[in-house]
Amino acid sequence: MNRITLVLADDHPLLLQGLESTLISKGFDVLGTASDGSAALKLITEFNPDIAILDIEMPLMDGLTVAKYCMGKGYETRFIILSYHKEIEFIARAKSLNVSGYLLKEDALEEIEACIREVANGGQYFSNAFQLKDVKFAQSSLEKVEALTPSERKILKLIAAGQSTREIADKLFISERTVEKHRSNVIQKLDLEGKPNGLTTWVLQNKHLLK
């Protein structure tokens, strides 16, 4: 059986070194390491590893941007994101890009082998620290956005940019009444009925899902 090939990227030298040593000792084939997103992207495009393990926050390009670029170009590499962020919005953003794994850095050395093997088998893996309900909530939010029409998502992006109903209507060359109708449909689809300023609040909290 061929060994699983990896590329690692993190801008914290000690964590990167520790991760590399741990994975080599467990029999994985580490093809290269990087301390910034640009170098990570170069390694992935050069070696096309089975899995790339990327820090969510790095100089030049963050891990999610690298993953999005590679997936858009059709690379078969699967992605595991390392992060300090436990908030649901980060899980949702990772899911929106269809990354295969999301590990908290505090749990990385303990869970990394199980994560890699699950991802290599075509599955997804999120740190055990995350509650199942949080992952399901993130998935539900993503599915609701994906169910919106292109016009509805465009209007949400303009709301996120702080534009009023009149400004949106002028920009899209439609009537204010049409904008309000779209807003009403979106509120219904997102289950926001009866919440004062519910749509605006939702948009501000979920901008990451609209990218």
TrEMBL record:
Keywords: DNA-binding, Phosphoprotein. The modification 4-aspartylphosphate is found at residue 55. It holds the Pfam family GerE. Residues 5-120 form the Response regulatory domain. InterPro entries: CheY-like_superfamily (IPR011006), Sig_transdc_resp-reg_C-effctor (IPR016032), Sig_transdc_resp-reg_receiver (IPR001789), Tscrpt_reg_LuxR_C (IPR000792), WalR-like (IPR039420). GO terms for molecular function: DNA binding. One of its GO terms (biological process) is phosphorelay signal transduction system. Residues 141-207 form the HTH luxR-type domain. Coiled coil: none annotated. It comes from the Bacteria. PANTHER family: TWO-COMPONENT RESPONSE REGULATOR (PTHR43214). This is LuxR family transcriptional regulator. It comes from Roseivirga ehrenbergii (strain DSM 102268 / JCM 13514 / KCTC 12282 / NCIMB 14502 / KMM 6017).
